[in-house]
Design goal:
Elements: E1 6-13, E2 20-23, E3 29-30, H1 33-46, E4 53-60, E5 71-76, E6 82-87
Antiparallel strand pairs: 1-2, 1-3, 1-4, 5-6
């Protein structure tokens, strides 16, 4: 199984940078950060015309958390700087598959 080292995250914004939304890119995950950085200008060029301002950033992926990331926290500052990070939510789900079944005939 290949590991992901970086994720290309792209948003499109209005010309005033007040309305922004995520944009899909054909290839968003990369085995190296360098590959992501190299692809970024081409991906942004391919999205030209989808929004007045397009901003992209390569986000580092921690291999230990690769399967745990469940959302991207992001914000675009008024100066056009994209601040984004991969996040793991605080929700924890636990289960116990070894739990014995209740014997309702013997239960008091």
């Amino acid at each position: 199984m290949e590991h992901i080292a970086a994720l290309l995250f792209v948003v499109g914004c209005s010309s005033t940078m007040t309305d922004c939304r995520e944009l899909e890119v054909p290839v968003s995950v990369f085995e190296t950060a360098q590959a992501c950085v190299a692809e970024r200008p081409f991906a942004l060029g391919d999205l030209r015309g989808r929004a007045p301002r397009i901003i992209g950033k390569c986000l580092a992926v921690d291999p230990a958390l690769e399967d745990d990331y469940d959302h991207i926290a992001w914000n675009v500052r008024p100066d056009g700087t994209l601040v984004a990070s991969l996040e793991v939510s605080g929700m924890l789900v636990a289960s116990n598959s070894a739990r014995p079944e209740k014997d309702y005939l013997k239960q008091q």
